[in-house]
Amino acid sequence: MLSGCGASLVSLQLNGCVGLRGEVLAAVGRLCPGLKLLNVRGLALMDEHLRDLAASCTNLRSLCLAWCTQLTEEGLRPLVARNPELEDLDIEALYLLTDSMLTGLAECTPRLSRLSMRMCHRFNPEAIVALVEGTELRSLLVSGVLDEARTTDLVSRVRRVRPHCELKW
């Protein structure tokens, strides 16, 4: 399917296509060099699939990896490093990510303006605030990340750094 239109394709929504194997991502990157939006929500992806995609996918502005629960920084970091124009990222339920991924996002994607990190339990408030400081974040979705008291504290800290940031918790 992609071999006929891939060169001109800018948006690809594969969310919920559970029959697709992760190996298809290497072909997506190769056949769709102009891809700006990619949604693979819920696919059974592994780190090597993201590394394969990163080899040729360098124009992403929006990426949804929500519920691709086996992914770690080892797979995600090369992809975000090769896509510095990334503005919108959904990593909901990527349980294995840690604060070092937030540091990598701040370093690699300074134009990041929207981030959904719902249910990423390993993130600490300090790393989240540092990410807000290091990017252009205007929308942050953090429900299910911290307990209520730490979430309230995080919200007030983010508001001090970025008063107009839309927060959902």
TrEMBL record:
Q: Boundaries of each F-box/LRR-repeat protein 15-like leucin rich repeat domain copy?
A: 2-132
Give the species this sequence originates from.
Volvox reticuliferus
Q: Its principal location?
A: cytoplasm
Q: Which GO terms describe its biological process?
A: SCF-dependent proteasomal ubiquitin-dependent protein catabolic process
The cellular location(s) given in this protein's UniProt record come to:
Cytoplasm, Cytoskeleton, Cilium axoneme
Output the Gene Ontology cellular-component terms: axoneme; SCF ubiquitin ligase complex
Q: Which domain of life is it from?
A: Eukaryota
> What protein name is recorded for this chain?
F-box/LRR-repeat protein 15-like leucin rich repeat domain-containing protein
